[in-house]
Each structure stands twice: as structure tokens, then as C-alpha cells.
Amino acid sequence: MYAALKSIGAYIPKKVLTNKDFESMVDTTDEWITKRTGIKERHIAAEDELTSDMGVEAAKVAIHRAGLKINEIDMIVCATISPDYFCMPSTACVIASKLGRTNVTAFDISAACTGFIYALAIAKAFIESGMKKNVLIVGAEKLSSIVDYTDRTTCVLFGDGAGAAVVSATRKKTEAITDIHVSADGNYGDLLMTPGCGVKNPCSEKVIEEKLCTMKMKGNETFKIAVRTLTSDVVNILNDNEVSAEDIKHFIPHQANYRIIKAVGDALKLTKEQVVLTVEKYGNTSSASIPMAMNDIWESGRLQHGDTMLLDAFGGGLTWGSALLPF
Ligand code: ACO
């Protein structure tokens, strides 16, 4: 049995925060943000809108497009670093409940911006082993709830949103996910972290005062490792599967920074037409960024069934991964 990506869906919150808006919030300019990141605006969830709410909306679209009923979904995996609840219940369980699906396997995974690719790998493994038939994977983030809006080095980068996909069992090899690489190096954990509210620095007045539950990033060091790691990872997955860069119809990288995407695209000698860019309008939405980008090209008619896609992501942990698959 093989695992195939059946459908994609996304949910994008209505409220937009532009670079201009940030000029009155922190010491920054539209010019700096655009030049250094490629981001022009990002969407922000409503105050009462939870990560699970956005995940549910994206999931409904993906399930509908897969032509399935909710009770045909036998596993839900949610990748998120901004779960509704700190320890429990998992956001996947909340999503299952809001979708009206009980008696289902449901759990969260934490792999930061690489979360969607990790979730895809898990879905593939469960399906290929014969344990599951239709897996819903969700990447959903309300990053605005873990951003320090007084820290110019991080607040301009992140946005909210959700993406979802259905991965199903198939006997057709031509539909099968070709290969997935997922990796991590915990020695670089301090480059990107939320230091507070875990066991190491439990929630306290001091932790809240020092905003230790918000994202801290050593951006420049992360940038250099990201370019190096992503480039070697995509080269490896292409070589392992004897696929050339010209055969890739859509290179869909994690949308963190235009300069990172360009460096990896240039290293692979990809054309502009092959590279999918949504960072300008959504910013970095962590685990939601790849499915949101896939949904964009599907809805615009650019993504057609049979197209070969190369996914690529990098995030806190440090984690990274890539996936090669047909749509
Ligand atoms: N506006 C104006 N100036 C700023 C801003 C801002 N918003 N942010 C930083 N600066 C200043 C810095 O203070 C610094 O000033 P100094 O020279 O006086 O010290 C200067 O700009 C340069 O700072 P750098 O950090 O060197 O800038 P860089 O070109 O590296 O860009 C950025 C910063 C955009 C964060 C980049 O490093 C980056 O994208 N890094 C990778 C992020 C990433 O991929 N993260 C992984 C996924 S995220 C996840 O897993 C959740």
C-alpha cells in the first residue's frame, strides 16, 4: 500500500497587519522589513479565534476536497507550536471534537516550522504500514499569541493561519508520496526558543514580566544554518530519488524569508516559475506556511494533478526536512 496526498485546504484570518502598521509599534521601517525578509503583510487571528478554530476551517476544506466524510478520517495529526492548551488536551483532540469525530487517533507534534513535513512523514508511515487509511494532517498557528510585539527582531516576521491535507492509502504507485527526509539537531536548540512556561522555567510572575513565553531568535545564525541545511537536504532528496531540479514543477519552501528561499532556489538553479512565494502576504506562519502556500497555488489553478512538488522546511529545534511528491 502507498500513501498519496489527496487534497489540500487552508484558512487565512481576515485581519491584516502591514509593515506600515509596525512603524508605529516598534523602531522599524517598511523598507527594512521588505529588504531583509520579503514580507509586506501578515494575517492575524481574532482575539477569540483559537489555533484549533483555524485548523478546523482548513480541515473542512481539505476533507471536502478529498471527497470524504469526517467519519472516514481515521487519524488526525496536528503540527503546532501555538497549541490551544499548554499540556493537554492536544490541539488535534480539540480539532477532532470540533469536527464531530470521536473514537479517532489524534495527537500533536512539535517540530516548529518543519511540523507539516514531519506530519506528512508520520501519515505516510501509518498508511504504508496498513494501520490507517485516511489521515488528516493540520499545520495551524496563532503565532501572534507567542510574539513579543515590543521586540522588532521577531515581531515583524510572524503571522497566523492554518493549512490541512488529507493523505490516503492508494495502490497506484504513480500517486504515491515519493520520499520524505526529516532531521533535527538539538545542539542548536537555543537559536530559536520560547524559554518560559515549560518545566525549565515554569510560569511565574518573573517569567511573564520577562516575556519568556514569547519567541526568542538568534536570527542571523539561524539564517546561515537554514541556507546551508536546506540546500544540502533538497540536493540529497533529489539525488536519492534520481530526480533532477528541472523535473520539479513546484518548489514549495517554508516561507520564513525571501532571501533564504532565493539562496536555496539559486543553488538548485530553479526558475522563478518553479518557486512558490507567499512570504510577502502571509509572513512566517511556521507549520502552516507550506500547506497555505500549496493551497494558494491550488486555488489559483497553478497546481495541477500529477505535478511534482518539492517541499522544504526549517525551524526551531533545530529541525529540517524535505518531501518529494506528486499532487
Ligand atoms: N527593523 C529594523 N532593524 C532591525 C529589525 C527591524 N525589524 N530587526 C533587526 N534589526 C536590526 C538589528 O538590531 C541589527 O542592528 P545592529 O546592526 O545595529 O545590531 C540589524 O538590523 C541587522 O540584524 P540582523 O539580525 O543581522 O539582520 P538579518 O539580515 O540577519 O535579518 C532576520 C534578520 C530577518 C531575522 C533574518 O536573520 C532571518 O530571517 N533569519 C532566519 C529566520 C528563520 O528562518 N527562522 C526559522 C523558522 S522560525 C520557527 O521555527 C518558528
From TrEMBL:
Location in or out of the cell: Cytoplasm
Active site per database record: C113, H254, N284
SUPFAM superfamilies linked: Thiolase-like
Region (ACP-binding): 255-259
Catalytic reaction equation(s): malonyl-[ACP] + acetyl-CoA + H(+) = 3-oxobutanoyl-[ACP] + CO2 + CoA
EC assignment: 2.3.1.180
Beta-ketoacyl-[acyl-carrier-protein] synthase III C-terminal domain ranges (all copies): 238-325
Domain Beta-ketoacyl-[acyl-carrier-protein] synthase III N-terminal: 107-186
Keyword Disulfide bond: no
Subunit: Homodimer.
Domain comment in the entry: The last Arg residue of the ACP-binding site is essential for the weak association between ACP/AcpP and FabH.
Described purpose of this protein according to its UniProt entry: Catalyzes the condensation reaction of fatty acid synthesis by the addition to an acyl acceptor of two carbons from malonyl-ACP. Catalyzes the first condensation reaction which initiates fatty acid synthesis and may therefore play a role in governing the total rate of fatty acid production. Possesses both acetoacetyl-ACP synthase and acetyl transacylase activities. Its substrate specificity determines the biosynthesis of branched-chain and/or straight-chain of fatty acids.
The name this protein goes by in its record: Beta-ketoacyl-[acyl-carrier-protein] synthase III
